[in-house]
Amino acid sequence: MPSSKALVRRPSPRLAEGLVTHIGRSPVDPDLAVEQWGAYVATLRAHGWETVEVDPADDCPDGVFVEDAVVMYRNVALIARPGAESRRPETGGVEEAAARLGCSVNWVWEPGTLDGGDVLKIGDTVYVGRGGRTNAAGVLQLREAFEPLGARVVAVPMSKVLHLKSAVTALPDGTVIGYEPLVDAPSLFPRFLPVPEEAGAHVVLLGGGKLLMAASAPRTAELFADLGHEPVLVEISEFEKLEGCVTCLSVRLRDLYA
Question: What is the pLDDT of residues 90-144, one digit of tens each?
Fold first, then answer.
């Protein structure tokens, strides 16, 4: 079985200049951010993930949020066209990393915009948030790229958060989890479990029932533990100040040729 890999990119020295859309700006400690990023990467490695570092993008304050630059489905890497024009230079290094890993590379073209953080994959169902950063043309191009490979693409309206995965992610059994005040249409998901904290809506599936999640969601971690999962907590306070979460900081590639 191919090993699980995760693309990561170290924070830019200009991280504190990163975009904020739905929250107020708070001071960011760049040194603490680098420390937290290092611990996040080490946690991935400790749980069996091979981390692949994308070339730094020091002139891109938001470059550490590498998930937004690409969407993976099977062996296809769809290079995003970020909705924020200032973020478009981030994609080149990610494209090169995906190509080095042997992915088939496709692109989102003008007038489409698509951020990877707007895409939630559960099996062969691909939910894509239609909101501030991803437009209708971007959704259409994602359909054209992935539906021939067997994906079922479902567009999800969103207006209360930056990205779809700022509102919802999913547990290993496919249950969608979210902080209900920020979810526009929970009824679109066959199974939806509300969580008690905003940061609790974000999990990365590490394998073996382990859930990587933010230390800022202790009540949600307790809920997941009660359900038989194993939360693995990381501190990402400096990235949360920029509307980041545990999913944003890596692109997970499993079984590329499945």
Answer: 999 999 999 999 999 999 999 999 999 999 999 999 999 998 899 999 999 999 9
Catalytic residues: 163, 248
What global pTM score does this model have? 0.96
Question: Cα-atom radius of gyration of the chain, to the nearest Å?
Answer: 17
Q: Domain residues of the chain, as ranges?
A: 5-14+23-253
3-class secondary-structure state, position 207: strand
Beta pairing partners, 80: none
Backbone φ and ψ for 128, nearest 5 degrees, come out as: -130, 125
Q: What number of CA atoms fall less than 13 Å from residue 2's CA on the CB side? A: 14
Q: Name the pairing type of β-strands 251-253 and 50-53.
A: unpaired
Segment 81-96, tens digit of pLDDT:
999 999 999 999 999 9
Distance CA 129, CA 178 (A): 14
Cα–Cα distance, 44 to 58 (Å, whole number)? 23
| 143's tokens | 């359909």
Can you state the percent helix, strand and coil of the chain, rounding each to 5?
Answer: 35, 25, 45
CATH superfamily membership of 5-14+23-253: L-arginine/glycine Amidinotransferase; Chain A (3.75.10.10)
Angle at 45 between CA 234 and CA 96, to 5 degrees: 105
